[in-house]
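Risk register update: the risk of archive-format incompatibility is retired. Evidence:
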Amino acid sequence: MRNKIKNLQEGINKVIDSEGNTYEGNNLKEMRSKLGNLLDKEEQYWIQQSRVSWLKEGDRNTQFFHARATNRKKKNNIARLKDINGHWRENTTDICMAIREYFQRLFKSNLNSNSTLNLDYIDRCIPGEANDKLLKNFTDNEIKEAFNQMDPRKALGIDGLSGNFFIENWDVVRGDVLKLCHDILRGDKNVDCLNDTTIVLIPKIKELVDMTNFRPIRLYRVVYKIMAKVLANRLKETLPLCISQNQSAFVPERMIHDNILIAHELVHYLHKGFVIKLDISKAYDRVEWTFIEEVMKKMGYANEWVTKIMSCVRSIRYVVKCNSILSETIVPERGLRQGDPLSPFLLLFYMEAFSKLLIHAQTNNILKGIRASINGPRINHLFFADDALLFIRNKKMDVEEIANIMASFSHDSGQEINKDKSMIMFSTKTPEAQKDLFSSMLGMRIVDKLDNYLGLPLPVGRKNHLLSLTSLIGVHAG
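Archived output:
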C-alpha cells in the first residue's frame, strides 16, 4: 500500500509539473481519486491495527493511530515466560512451544471413553414440534439476519477478512456466502473448512510470569460466525423449554435483575443457613463435548440437530500467535470457543445438568434450600451462566449432600470447582463450631460478606438492604 501511494504521489507531481492539456487534466483527476481511495484504506487499516474501538471515525491517517498500533505491538510482545513445569523460557521459539504445551494440556479431555454417564435426573423436555422447527430448511433471510446481528468491527479472523469487508462488498460476495452457509447447514459440506482459529494472547498485567497473566482471544472467520449465528438463533427459541427457572442467562424473557433481586431477598432473610458462592475454574475451556452431547440428547433434541451443533464444536483447530510467530496446530478434545455464537447456549446445557442435580435433591427432600418468608418457595441455587450461588441449611446432612453433588458433577462433566476462590457466608446465628466444621467439609473459606454478585453488592444489614433493594427495583422497572 505504501508503494502504491508513493507511486501515485510521484505521478501526480509529474502531471502537475508538465504542460497542461485536456488529457493530462483527466488523468490528474483519475490519479487523485485513486490516491484518495488508497489513503482511506490506509486510514482504516491503521484504525483496525490500533484497535481503538471507541473511535468510530478517524480524522485522517494521523500519528495517533500509528502510535496506538506500535504501542499495542510492543505491549503484546512476550520477552520470557514460565512453562507448565515452572521453568523460564526466553527464546521466542521456546516461548511459543511452552504456550502450545499449556493449551494442549488445557484442551485435553479428562473423561474416560469407556465410562458411562448417569443422566437419569434429566427429563425429556423438547417436543417433536420443536425439533421440526429446528430442522426445517434454512432461508436466505435467516442468514442475512444473522449477518446483520454481528459487530463488523471485531478483530480479523485467520483469513484477514473483517465484517466490514463483507458489508462493503455484499453485492459481490453475497452469492458465495449464502451458498457456503446453505451447504454447511444442510450437511452437504463439512464445517471444518471454516473452523481454523488463531489464539492471540493479551497481557493482563505488566510483569508477565505465566499463562494465567494472559487473556486468550480467539480469532476466526466471519463466514463461520454467520453460519453459527443462524444455528444459535434457532437454538435460542427452545431454551425456555429446557432451562430451569433458576438459570437466568441468555434465555429469552429472563432478566439479570431477577437473579439479583432474589439473591438480595434470600441473603437478607438468611437466619439458619449459609450461602456458597462457587468459582468454576475456566468453565468454557473445560467443557467436555461428550457430556454436552449426551445432555442435549437426554433433553430430547433430535440426533440430526445435535450432530449439526457438535460438528461446529469438534471441528475447531487452533494455532497460537506468539511474537508474530504461529505455533503448530493444536487439536482440542474439549472446550468451548469464547466469542462463538453457540458457546453461551452450550454452556447453559452444561450448567443445567448441575441445576437438575440440585433440583432433584430438593424434590426428594434431601437438599431443601432456604426461603425468604414462611410461605415462600424454597430455593437451593441461583445460576447466571457459570456464576453460581448455593443456599444451604445449617445441617450436616445437607452439607454432605451438596459436597457429594459437586463431586458428582465435577466427575461427570470434567469441570473443576476452584475451592480456593469459592467462599461461604454464614448467617449471624450460626455457631462458630458449625462454621468451622462445614467450612472444613467443603474445603472453602469463610467470609463476613460476599463479593459483588453480577456487578452489584449483596446487602448487609436492614438499612443497606432497603436502600439497595429500592435502587434495584428502580433499575428493574426502567
